[in-house]
Structure formats: structure tokens, C-alpha cells
Amino acid sequence: MTTDKSALTYDWTTTAEDVIAGIDLAGRRAVVTGGSSGIGAETARVLAQAGAEVTLAVRNPVAGQAVADEVEKEIGRPVRVGQLDLADLQSVRAFAGQWRGPLHILVNNAGIMAVPERRLTRHGWELHFATNHLGHFLLARELHGPLAAAGGARVVALTSRGHMRGQVTFEDIHFERRGYDPYVAYGQSKSANVLFAVAATRRWAEDGIVANAVHPGAIEATRLGRFIPEEHMNAYRSAAIYNWKTPAQGAATSVLVASAPELAAVGGRYFEDCREGEVLPPGTDFAAAGHGVAYWAVDEGHAERLWDVSEQLLGGI
């Protein structure tokens, strides 16, 4: 990776406004999923502040419109809102089908975490994998034409340090035979997000599209953690490996990867705290790791296999 000031001066305390200072996104068009709250709303706000034409792709259009109205008051330009339910393939296709013109930035920000009981979509897919990975995979695939038309488009796939809790278990993705664990299910979907970025860059770089995975960090007071029991949250808060961030700090790495000129041709990487993360080899104590990306999440063979499996699951639906 060729970076300059980002590698030297940015860290976990950096905010989204810090990394985009001096960058002009006028004429660029961006979609941010899950933009109705938390770091998604902050990502959308800062991209719009820098001049981008932003669309919030949200499950709840009323909540999304409230955010859009606030941003419009700040920047004096409209922010669009589109309905998108990532667990509903018809909704994903409808959103993508209504898009017209190029798309320069796609931030796959929305997600769910630690749903306590095993839940399946109507297609029989485990909910974390279906929402966090398959919905975003389909969205990016359906928007491939607009992304290619942009010339130099970027896809940002939000992952998590939680990916270290679960590799993609290809033999039992939907927990049909193994016992369900909400953190393993979440981890599997977050490993899938990184693998998507690896495979998408390999497949789409010739179309001018790069994709990178971003771990935003541990963020206080967002809806992502709504299923986590309070005692678990208290344990996380006291763990030494976490630096708890504000939404402004949590959105920083997404905004950096989406906008920094020095990253225009960089793809298939994992970023955290506004810099590229170290690849952790086999034998690492992943439970105790305070940084980096597990080797399996950037494995090109696993990435290609996941792409093929995702295509097969979506085929004919």
C-alpha cells in the first residue's frame, strides 16, 4: 500500500472530518447502506459535506429521511433516501434497478450483530450471513454497471475485529448441523465481508473498481449492539484491547478508504484505525489479538470459493 500522511498521523482518535479535510468530492455519487444512524449517518454526512451526492440506502425510510433533512440543513444540498432491506433480495434488486448513472462510492455499512437465536431468511439462509454478506454481495453485483461507468469506483465493505470469532464454514454456513453461536455467526459474516473485498478487487479491478474492508472499531451507543446483553457490553468496555470510539471516529476509516487520493488504486485490503491492518498468521491467539486481520479472511482461494458459493445461493432467486 502506498500511503503518506494517513500512515504517519492518523490513529484511532482520528475523525471522519479529519481524513476528508481538503478533499473535494463534487461530482461524485455515493451510496451508504445503513445511513439512518450511527457511523453510517456520520459517513454519509461527511461525504456530503465534501461535495458528494449522497443516497442513504436504509431499511426505515422515515429514519433515513430524518438524517437526510439534518444533513441538507447543514450543507444546503439535497440528500436522497432509498428503501433497502438487505435480507430481502427483491428489495435489493429494486433499489439497484432504480439507480441511474454512474456510482463512484458504495459503502456497505449496514449490518446486524449477535442475534441471540438462530434465525433464517425465507430462503433458508442464516440471518447474519444473509444480511451482512449476501445482501451486500448482491447489491454490489447489481450495481456493477454503474460502478464500472464511474471510472475509478470504490466499494467499502464494513467488517469487524469480530471476524476472528468465525471463519466461513463452507460445509455448514447456515448452522444446520453445528450448534448456533451468535458471535460465531457474526464472525463468519464479517470474515465474508473481507473475503468479498479480496475477490471483488481481483474480478473488477480491470473495470476500474476496487474494494476494501474496514473495521470501524468499537463504537459506543449504536444500534448494532442492541442484541448484546449488558453484562457482555460491560466486559467489552473493560477489555484492554478496545479503544471505544465516537461515531465521528468510527466513520473515519470508511471515509478515508472511500475518498483518500493515495488509495485510489488500492484494493483487496483490510483497514483499521485509518491504516492497513497486519495479516495475522496461523498460530496467532486470535481471541487476544488487539489488531490485524486473520489470515483466512484475506486468503484468495477462500475469497474465490465464497464468491462462487454466493453466486450459487443467489442463482435462480
Question: What does the model show?
Answer:
The chain has 317 residues and is α/β, with parallel strands linked by helices. It has one domain (5-311): 3-Layer(aba) Sandwich (Rossmann fold). Helix content is 40%, strand content 14%. It is built from twelve helices and twelve strands. It has helices spanning 5-9, 16-20, 38-49, 61-75, 89-97, 127-142, 144-150, 182-204, 230-238, 247-250, 252-259, 300-314, and strands spanning 29-33, 53-58, 80-83, 105-108, 153-158, 209-215, 218-219, 244-245, 270-272, 275-276, 279-280, 293-294. The strands form three sheets. An eight-stranded mixed β-sheet has the order 3-2-1-4-5-6-9-10, sandwiched between helices. Strands 7-8 form a two-stranded parallel sheet. The chain has a two-stranded parallel sheet with strand order 11-12. Strand 7 (218-219), helix 9 and strand 8 (244-245) form a beta-alpha-beta unit. Helix 6 packs parallel to helix 8.
